[in-house]
Design goal:
Elements (H helix, E strand, L loop, with lengths): L5 E3 L8 H16 L7 E4 L1 H9 L6 H18 L2 E2 L5 E2 L1 E7 L9 E5 L3 H11 L2 H19 L4 H15 L9 H19 L7 H15 L3 H10 L7 E7 L10 E6 L11 E6 L5 H4 L5 E2 L2 H5 L1 H18 L3 E8 L2 E9 L4 H13 L5 H7 L5 H4 L3 E2 L1 H5 L3 E4 L1 E4 L2 E7 L2 H9 L5 E5 L7 H6 L2 E4 L7 H9 L2 E4 L5 E3 L4 E3 L5 E3 L3 E5 L4 E4 L4 E2 L5 H13 L3 E5 L3 H9 L5 E5 L7 H12 L3 H25 L4 E5 L13 H11 L3 H11 L11 H6 L1 H20 L5 E6 L5 H20 L8 E6 L2 H5 L1 H4 L5 E4 L1 H9 L7 H9 L15 H16 L4 E4 L7 H9 L4 E4 L4 H16 L1
Parallel strand pairs: 3-4, 16-17, 17-18, 18-19, 26-27, 26-33, 27-28, 28-29, 29-30, 30-31, 31-32, 32-33
Antiparallel strand pairs: 1-2, 2-7, 5-6, 5-7, 8-9, 8-11, 9-10, 11-12, 13-25, 14-24, 15-19, 16-23, 20-21, 21-22, 23-24
The structure holds phosphoenolpyruvate (PEP) and magnesium ion.
């Protein structure tokens, strides 16, 4: 039986986004509920997969289905493809399962050639419109399908505007546009050594192929990497009868949201342009009008639009982002999708929809992306610092938050600067394009000179949670020359500091201190709902009392990992730990440990105090040795003096301790085996801190975790040091402090023998950073150097150090859970690798029955929400 690859909107299943892409599925829905949409059909994602399977060829079978549907479209519209008298023109648009705004390609006005254009001029009696559509088509087809640089066409267009004195594109006459078309064709000929293709069917098939290919263009691949969209989904292609917003002043095109995507306010929000087409609104070609202006210009169209917007929101039970075109006073809906929104808007919309009775609390939990909560934890400016700040200009408040940093005029350079160690970089562009996506992601803030609230910069920045000011026309940007001038002609060059307030649109001179975000009522409400649903505990990885306090404020229910070695990186402490590691006599080592004990005890007291009544899992020392060995000559000299040994001797010791592969070297429990004094000192510090804090009325729940165990005898040995030390201390204490001893499961062998380890361990915590390293055999310090090639070549679509490899590492975990519970049914199970803060990994942890996940403090709210979503998804 042959497969069906092409679906007319009227026959397609509006629920099947996997097959039809979001755009195709929603067009089917809109057709079903009787909205005014241009007729058309969708070439499915299966056709895209087939195209790639056949080495970028559209099979005869699929081509035949496309033509059969085209024929139907001709019948429905009463127009004929390629017919000069009554031509059918179509749009060809991408549409993946998840919306990827602006990442893939679109071709409009397809089906035009000289003959068709001449015929259309007669039938519409609108030569300017036809020439405008034709020049757009030549440019889009040449760029998207034939790969000719778009900027070459833009240069011709700008040249024509300049030489005719036109300020706006709409001021160009039909004759001017004919000149443009001539020059475009000449450019095409020069580039391709052949004439611009005139056969509409060929134009169509080549355009569909180009849209399929655009799934793999660089910006789409980058977008997928950032938003974790699988590479194998592919895109569908929708083919629709063209409707024209560029037919004159009774026509136009626009983009609107049913609610405000920045704040969530329940009020129509959007922009439109009269006599314009396609991307004009988002590309910032002219300054668009606010959607309410449509009420004045075309009141009936506005009323109809409002009623459609309400209908769509009721149907999808979510805020909609809609594109529309008005052709000679008649409204057409081109697409609708659930709108991208800021985190603040996401929360407000979800909570409002519950109070409006449209959805229930679980729907609300499911509709907020956990990752987005990050934005809420964003900074604002310090109020006092802001009082003294100097406003240079005002633009559109496109994406909220505050950002301060050095100016950079090129997206690639932002990446380089960040990689070279710059922590705060502001990307300044005339306007951004999808090519800039990676730089925008790396930037702290984004400032553009052109474009509105739905411009590329605004939409993308909002979604990423980057602070952004768009359309800041009060400054003059010279991208190539790498400077901008404000209205008083003050010059700001690359490397100078500026600050942006993305919530007000104000641009400031210099660096302004920022403050952390404050938690809102909406945030607390959603978190409360999430906590009622989730079953996983949420702990935090925290090494300092400040981290612990923040984690607790964010809702952490314990500390899942205190990396005790992180307490030694302080300048004063590092020399003590170096002394300890480099000591060659008992005396030297004891002296160093005596220095460390009070520091450690103080650290732990701080943690216990902050986490009063909650468990605190303290891990014994686990540094890769090289992180502690001194490398700078001055440090070595200072240490030699401190240790009272000759410099050459110290250098010899250091050389001896160097390892070829420190990540597989003398770290974790191996250090405790060599230097049991360390484990003893640390246990003493934990227990003494616990006793001291108990005296202050604090309820302490200490758990001591032994890292990098691969054999039960290692665990037995280190545990005996811990237990002996603790028992001696507790014998003379007035408090009966209960403490647990457990182990990390991070070496594959530990997972394999988890039943044996569970005889000694009261808890397991999965160290999936090391587990990933050892299961794949990739050094966690170096893997990024080659993983990029893996993404490029489609071998991986995600970094296994960020998203848990559920098949490989996940199997190890499942096995350890089963074996551990077999020996010790009440064994406490958690995860403290970085994956503990990643939503899809959290879902996996929920599914294998862990008791808790532990993540960095700022990710605690994300984990709470993800854990609730995991429960909801598991019920489905
Ligand atoms: C781990 O390996 O996952 C872990 C939490 O320990 P670390 O990152 O400190 O090696
Ligand atoms: Mg580890």
């Amino acid at each position: 039986m042959s497969n069906r690859y092409v679906w007319p909107f009227s026959e397609a299943d509006g629920k099947n986004k996997e097959l039809l892409g979001g755009k195709g599925a929603n067009l089917a829905v809109m057709t079903g509920i009787g909205l005014p949409i241009p007729w058309g059909f969708t070439v499915s994602t299966e056709a895209c997969a087939d195209y790639y399977e056949k080495n970028e060829v559209i099979s005869a079978e699929i081509e035949a289905q496309i033509y059969a549907n085209l024929l139907e479209l001709e019948k429905i519209t009463g127009k004929t493809f390629g017919d000069p008298i009554n031509p059918l023109l179509v749009s060809v648009r991408s549409g993946a399962r998840a919306s990827m705004p602006g990442m893939m390609d679109t071709i409009l006005n397809l089906g035009l050639n000289d003959e068709v254009a001449a015929g259309l001029t007669i039938s519409t009696d609108n030569e300017r419109f036809v020439c405008d559509s034709y020049r757009r088509f030549i440019q889009m087809f040449s760029d998207v399908v034939m790969g000719i640089d778009k900027s070459k066409f833009d240069a011709i267009f700008e040249f024509e505007k300049k030489s005719t004195g036109a300020e706006l594109d709409t001021e160009l006459t039909a004759d001017n546009l004919k000149d443009v078309i001539k020059m475009y064709k000449a450019l095409y000929y020069g580039e391709k050594k052949s004439s611009f293709p005139t056969d509409p069917k060929l134009q169509l098939i080549e355009s569909i192929k180009a849209v399929f290919r655009s799934w793999n263009n660089e910006r789409a691949v980058s977008y997928r990497r950032i938003y974790q969209i699988p590479d194998d989904w592919g895109t569908a292609v929708t083919i629709q009868e063209m409707v024209f917003g560029n037919m004159g002043d009774d026509s136009g095109t626009g983009v609107a949201f049913t609610r405000n995507p920045s704040t969530g306010e329940n009020k129509l929000f959007g922009e439109f342009l009269i006599n314009a087409q396609g991307e004009d609104v988002v590309a910032g070609i002219r300054t668009p009008l606010a959607i309410v202006e449509l009420k004045v210009i075309m009141p009936e169209v506005y009323e109809e639009f409002v009623s459609i917007a309400n209908k769509l929101e009721d149907h999808f039970r979510d805020m909609q982002d809609m594109e529309f075109t008005i052709e000679k006073g008649k409204l057409f809906m081109l697409q609708t999708r659930n709108g991208k929104r800021t985190a603040a808007a996401a929360l407000k919309i979800a909570i409002d929809l519950v109070s409006e009775g449209m959805i229930n609390e679980e729907d609300a939990i499911a509709m907020v992306q956990p990752e987005q909560l990050d934005q809420l934890l964003h900074q604002g400016f310090d109020k006092i610092a802001l009082k003294n700040a100097n406003v240079i200009a005002k633009g559109l408040p496109a994406s909220p938050g505050a950002a301060t940093g050095i100016i950079c005029f090129n997206a690639q350079d932002v990446d380089k600067l960040v990689k070279a160690g710059a922590s705060k970089v502001i990307l300044v562009r005339s306007e951004t394009s999808p090519e800039d996506i990676e730089g925008m992601h790396s930037a702290t803030g984004i400032l553009t000179g052109r474009g509105g609230m739905t411009s590329h910069a605004a939409v993308v920045a909002r979604q990423m949670g980057r602070c952004c000011i768009a359309g800041c026309s009060e400054i003059n940007i010279f991208e190539k020359e790498k400077y901008f001038l404000d209205s008083k002609n003050n010059k700001y060059s690359e490397g100078d500091y500026i600050s942006l307030n993305g919530s007000t649109g104000y641009l400031y001179d210099g660096e302004i201190a920022t403050v952390d975000a404050t938690v809102t009522e909406d945030f607390l409400t959603l978190m409360k709902w999430a906590d009622e649903v989730r079953t996983l505990g949420i702990y935090a990885n925290a090494d300092t009392p400040e981290d612990a306090r923040r984690a607790r404020e964010f809702g952490a229910e314990g500390i899942g990992l205190c990396r005790s070695e992180h307490m030694f990186f302080d300048k004063k402490r590092i020399s003590a730990i170096r002394e300890m590691i480099l000591a060659r006599t008992e005396m030297q080592r004891k002296r160093a440990l005596d220095k460390l004990l009070p520091m450690q005890r103080g650290d732990f007291e701080g943690l216990f105090k902050e986490m009063d009544g909650l468990p605190v899992i303290i891990r014994l020392l686990d540094p890769p040795l090289h992180e502690f060995l001194p490398t700078e000559q001055v440090d070595i000299e200072e240490l030699a003096v401190e240790m009272e040994i000759p410099l050459f001797e110290l250098k010899q010791i250091i050389t001896k301790l160097k390892e070829f592969n420190p990540l597989m070297g003398h770290r974790g429990c191996r250090l405790a085996v060599t230097y049991p004094e360390i484990a003893e000192m640390q246990t003493r510090a934990v227990i003494e801190a616990a006793i001291n804090m108990s005296r202050e009325g604090i309820k302490v729940i200490p758990e001591i975790m032994i890292p990098l165990i691969g054999d039960e005898k290692e665990l037995k040995y280190v545990k005996s040091i811990v237990v002996n030390t603790a028992t001696n201390l507790l014998l003379t204490s007035e408090f009966d402090i209960h403490y647990k001893v457990g182990t990390m499961i991070e070496i594959p062998r530990a997972a394999i023998i988890a039943d044996i380890l569970a005889e000694y361990a009261e808890f397991f915590s999965f160290g999936t950073n090391d587990m990933t390293q050892f299961v794949f055999g990739y050094s966690r310090d170096d893997a990024d150097k080659f993983l990029f090639d893996y993404y490029k070549k489609g071998i991986f679509d995600k970094n296994p150090f960020e998203k848990l490899d559920q098949i490989g590492v996940g199997s190890m975990m499942k096995m350890a859970v089963a074996l551990g519970r077999r020996t010790r049914p009440d064994i406490e199970l958690g995860i403290c690798g970085e994956h503990g803060g990643d939503p899809s990994s959290i879902e996996f942890c929920n599914s294998i029955g862990l008791d808790y996940v532990s993540c960095s403090p700022f990710r605690v709210p994300i984990a709470r929400l993800a854990a609730a979503q995991a429960v909801i998804n598991s019920r489905k």
